[in-house]
Design goal:
single chain; alpha+beta
């Protein structure tokens, strides 16, 4: 398993919304192509079963626990097998100033496509997760009014 963590002043509700809404990934993720929802969730628009496409990848939501846990698997497009990511959001106090802080813990598991390449692929994926735990809160803390996460309605 690989993992990256960060803390932010952004509320877990806002972070979760940016994870759940596929189009919001394009807003905070700085991907070269836009992200889009290819399939709605099984029981809610953005819940379990939702499929998002971010070229060349396609991912499906497999854990949807507002506002604490969001998980997804890669269906295709990543250079690994059985990729799964789980993002845990933990709200806590920051004793220094009495404010709130949210801990983001982004974990992933995978199997390398080519035997013996696990360490190298893991290094690349760990860098990706470290980037995500920086970009997501930076965007949410200063989220523009036209962000897809704000326009999505109820999640």
């Amino acid at each position: 398993m690989i993992q990256a963590t960060a803390t932010t002043t952004a509320a877990p509700e806002d972070l979760f919304r940016h994870l759940a809404v596929p189009e919001a990934w394009g807003a905070w993720g700085r991907f070269p192509t836009s992200a889009r929802q290819a399939r709605k969730g099984d029981t809610t628009t953005y819940g379990v079963g939702t499929v998002k496409k971010i070229w060349p990848a396609s991912e499906q939501t497999v854990a949807y626990e507002p506002y604490t846990h969001f998980g997804y698997i890669a269906l295709k497009g990543l250079p690994v097998r059985r990729y799964r990511s789980d993002v845990h959001l933990e709200n806590g106090e920051q004793p220094e100033n009495g404010g709130q802080r949210t801990l983001i813990r982004w974990e992933a598991t995978f199997e390398p496509l080519i035997p013996g390449t696990g360490a190298l692929v893991g290094f690349g994926l760990r860098l990706m997760l470290k980037t995500f735990v920086k970009w997501l809160p930076a965007h949410v803390e200063d989220c523009p009014a036209d962000c897809p996460a704000r326009r999505a309605g109820d999640i």
